[in-house]
Amino acid sequence: MPFSHLSTYSLVWVMAAVVLCTAQVQVVTQDEREQLYTPASLKCSLQNAQEALIVTWQKKKAVSPENMVTFSENHGVVIQPAYKDKINITQLGLQNSTITFWNITLEDEGCYMCLFNTFGFGKISGTACLTVYDHIYFLSQYSP
């Protein structure tokens, strides 16, 4: 009887270890704040040993995310028509990906998801937000 309890406890510990190991998969991103009408880059890194099959960048919208660009070894970079002259993937990789906006406008402000489609973990995503600011110069003249 004690042997069967030992097997059960061992099985529980092994299952817990597997759950903890799979929970370690994460995507690291960083929010950016950039000046209006300048280039801006958002980065995403998959922090595990699994390599993704495809990386997709989406802009978060009120109703549903909008696909912007994807990268895979089979198809290369595929940019959606609405973003053709606006962005590109400037770091081509299946674990590290960077998109660059060539000339940001106020419409570019918002949050963006990078999705890594992996074999074994499925879709793993992270979110990076872009804040756009403009320098406002005040000229004042003092008259006594």
From TrEMBL:
Residues 23-131 form the Ig-like domain. Residues 1-23 form the signal peptide. Pfam families: ig (PF00047). It is a single-pass type I membrane protein. Costimulates T-cell proliferation. May regulate myeloid cell activity in a variety of tissues. The keyword Signal applies. SMART domains: IG (SM00409), IGv (SM00406). One of its GO terms (molecular function) is cell-cell adhesion mediator activity. GO terms for cellular component: cell surface; plasma membrane. It comes from Homo sapiens (Human). It comes from the Eukaryota. GO terms for biological process: negative regulation of macrophage activation; regulation of immune response. This is OX-2 membrane glycoprotein. Keywords: Cell membrane, Disulfide bond, Glycoprotein, Immunoglobulin domain, Membrane, Signal, Transmembrane, Transmembrane helix. SUPFAM superfamilies: Immunoglobulin.
